[in-house]
Structure formats: C-alpha cells, structure tokens
Amino acid sequence: MPPIRSKARRSMPRPSIARRGRARHWGTASAFVLPVLGLTVLFSVVPLVMVIRRSLYAGNIFGTNLTFSGLANYREVFATGGGHALIVTAVYTAGFVAVVMGLGGGIALLLDVKLPGLRQVRAFFVIPLVVPPVATAFIWFTFFQPGTGLFNRALAAAGLGQVSLSSATDAMIAVIAFGAWQFFGEAVLLYLAALKTLPRDVLDAASVDGASAWQRLRWIRWPLLRHQTALITIVATLTGLQAFTQIYILTNGGPQGATQTALYYVYDQAFGLGASGSTGLADAMSVILFAISLIVTMTQLALISRPARGAQATRTVPARMGRA
Amino acid sequence: MTGMRLPAKAAVYALVAISVLLVVFPLLWMVAAALKTQAQIIDPNGSLLPVHPQWGNLSRAWNIAPFGTFFVNTAIFSIVTTTGQIATGMLAGYAFAVFDFPAKRVAFYLVMSGLMIPFTVVIVPVVQLLADFGWVNTWQGLLVPNIASALGCFLFRQFFLSAPAELGEAARIDGAGEWRIFWRVYRPLAQPMIAAFTVIAFLQNWNNFLFPLVVTSSEHLMMISQGLTIFQGQITGTAYNLLMAGSLIAVVPVLVVAMIAQRKVVEGLTLGAIR
Q1: A319 in a domain, yes or no?
Q2: Of A149, B95, B126, B208, which one has the greatest count of Cβ atoms within 10 A?
Q3: B163 vs A16: CB contact, 8 Å cut-off?
Q4: Which tens digits make up the pLDDT trace of A261-287?
Q5: Of B2, B4, B23, which to mutate for an interface test with A (greatest number of A Cβ within 10 Å)?
Q6: For chain B, what percent of residues have pLDDT higher than 90?
Q7: C-alpha to C-alpha distance for B275 and B272, rounded to whole angstroms
C-alpha cells in the first residue's frame, strides 16, 4: 500500500505532540492501542486470510474435512452464475454511480447559488441517508406494485405500459433508482463542501468580466472540481459495490438472478436459499469482490496522494466503506 | 451573484423545489399510505391522500410484531457499539499520534488495513469465527465485532496530530500522568470531533442491516431493520397500509434525532470523506 505509507511518513515523525522516552510510555501506549488493534486483526485481518485460504479448499461450512482443491471453487463460481453476478454488479454500480453523481453534482450546484433560503434546504437531502434503508426500501417496493403502485398508476394515467419487479430490466431500474435515491445526498454534501473551497474572488471577477453562468461552470468550476469529482465517484463506486439492502428488500436478487450482484451471490451461497453446506463458492466470490474493491481503493489512495492540479490540495481518507 | 435576473432566480428555486420533492415525496407517500384503509390501498383509482385517516393502523402494526423489543435492542446495540467505537478509536488514535512505542508502524498498518477490508468481503469467515466461539445468536456476537472502528482510530489520530503540544508539555511539568494529560487536556479538545463522529457512527449502527441479519435469527435479539422484514412476513398479502405504518414507526425516531442534531449530522457525513 504505497500511498498510505507515503502519507504516514509525511505525518508520523512530525514532533507536534509526539513524545520521546519510549520505555516509559510503552505500557500506556499498548493499553491504548490494544483494543482497536486486537479487534481489527481478529475481525478483519484474520477473516481475510481465512477467506483467501478457504477459497482454495473444498469442505463444509464448519471448516472440517478441508481438502486443497486449487482453483476449483473459482471455476465453479463461474459455472454457477458467478460471471453473471459480476456483470450485474458492474451494471448496477455503473447505473448507481451515474445517477448519484448527476443528481449530487447538479443539486449541489443549485444549492451553492447565493440566494436566500437555499442553505436551509440542504438538510432535506440528508434524510434518505439517515433513516433506515429497509423502511425506505419498502416505500419503493410499494411504488412498483402492479396496478396500485405509484409508478404504475402514473403510467396508466399517461396511457403507458406497466412496470413490474418481475421483469428483469424493471427490477434493475428499481434497485438502481432506490439505491441512488438513498445515497445521492452524500454526493450533494460532498460536492457542496468541495464547492466551498473554490476561490470566490476568481468566480466573482469572471462574473464582472461578463462570463455567463455556463462559462463559469465550464471553464472555472469544472476544472477545479475534477479532482474532487474523481474522489466522490470512488466513494460512490465503493458504496455501489456493496449494495445489499435494496436488493434484499426489492428483488431478492431476482427475477432469475437479474439483480443478483456479487455480494448478493455471496450472501445467497453462504446464508440464503442457495446455501449448500459448503462455503467454497461464497469464499471464492468474496475474494473476487475484495480484489475489485482493493483496485478501487488503490485508485482512491493514488488520487489522494497526488495533489489536485490548480485546486488546493485536499485530504481524504478511504471512508464510507461500511455502507451496505 | 446578487445580480441574478428574476427568471434565473425563479428557475433555481423551481429546480430546488423539484429536488426537495424528490426526497420528501416518498416519505409523504409512506405517511399517506400508512393512514389508508385496505380498500383504498388496493383501489388503483383511489385518492392519493388518506380520506379518513386510519390512525388505528399504527397501533395495529405495533401489535403485530414486537416493535418495542426491536427498538430496545436497536438502542442497546447502537449505544454500546458507538460508545465502544469512540472510546477505542480515540485511545488508539491518541497513542498513534502521541507516543513512540515498539512496532508502532506495524500496528498502525494493521489497523489501517481494516479500512481496506470492507466488512462485506469477510462476512462469511466472521460468521464462522463467531460460530466457533459459540456466539451466533448472542449479544456478544452482535456487539464485540462492532466495538472497534479503524476509521474512528484514523480520524482521531489525524485530529491529535494537529493538536498543540505545549498543553501536554505544561501539564507534564506540573507533574500530571499520561492518563491525566489525555483525559483532562486532550480529550476536551476533541469534543467537536467526538460529537460529529458520535452522530454518524450512531446512525450507521442504528441502520446496520446485513450484520445482524447474518448473526441473529431469534426475535428477542432482533433490531428494527430486520424486525421490519419479519413484520412484512407476518402481515398478509397486500396489506401495504400496515407495511407503511411499520416503516413509519421505524423512520420517525431517526428522523427526529437527525433533525435535532442536523448540523452535526452534516458535519459527520462529510467527515472522513473530503476535507
């Protein structure tokens, strides 16, 4: 993890409040560090090693009778719809990120306009992020009900056809729509924070010189926001890769696996209806999912360690990884 | 931009209104549906508003599933894990920022690797570990894996790295011990950070769905999110008015808390992402 290392090297030896005399504070320091260290190792690092190792073994869920089977689990994953699940993950994540970024960026630009009342409105976009997603997913579930759901009533009123969660395309649209609705407020907040860092005097000067709103966006704001846009895209991508609740509530991965993402495949194989007493397939898919998110996180760290051109440098941490 | 022309201003306000509606409409729909009769729910041409609000739906929903137990469980889970995440994260973050100790770098990278390993990737082996401990379907199984937060540790470390050294030095000259320096000098400095982290950690723990789902199956340990799915299974067919009443029961407490702590929520949600 080179970017973390370089970041750490920059900040660690800085003698701000760091003290010398390592022997004296050894006891205090280890007592302070041990809870987080122990629990992280036990519930993150060890399980990661376990899952990588187990993905190469055949055996039952309790880990008895393990026999080395090489890449057999991985081959089996692709033979049992795993490849399709990866495609579904890509489609879902791409759709999710596109809607989140579009809505988030657009609404943040609107709220950044200096007009009375717009600051207060920001609070509304926090609501979908903080209320239980299971509850709001049920709202969207009723939207799609045949005949009586909001969308179908609107479509019928407009003389158009009906949508249904048992159609593959509609089901995918539904999980993307709800997922994006639930999360886009995060992009609004992050973009608003980024917009605040832009040099106000430059924008005002451009305005005085007669630059239109579109010209200011195209030639001043957008170039300065490109770096943050990349970072917000990554935060959204990591969230999209971990979508679970909306799929569980709206479609259960169906119809016929049309909305079964990689994570849902893992869940289904290990705990759900697809569970077969062996976790080999779930383990192998977990490792694939880990590899994908690792690549995304690495990109994130590389972006963070390379300061933005033009804009002032931003500090970011690989946060927001735990949203399911 | 005060020189904006009137049509432009009107356009901005109109677009903002549409955006707000995008957020608020589904919630209003939920409230309306929760107060409708079953006949109104299944009528494709029925009014969008509840004509004769059925307040009784809320108490019916409350009585179908043990929502009281769900709320108490969710509260216990959120309070314990949030407190744990702040306490352990702050202590470790402080130690990484302040002390010099053997194997510090290794320890730091191990904790930071927790940020690179999404929980979803290790969900299967974590449940296997908990099964080995005999902790499936127990409180310790729910709580212990969620007590530590690598993100919290990182954020507090960054915070304490930028805290002024002179305060601690002065206290040390006055003969204060290390714990006292931490507790009396630096912890109070971190108060705004603690508040922002508390709010988002609490909300995330409150809304955690996947983890309790795979670790518990008994109703007396269930939390509100999982409880809602049980509730859905218990109401029959198309009783969407009751489903929305149950969802409303789950949404309102969080909404109230989030509105009260609004500024801290916004601060917390942008913490850790871009600063």
Answers
A1: no
A2: B95
A3: yes
A4: 999 999 988 888 767 767 888 999 999
A5: B23
A6: 44
A7: 7
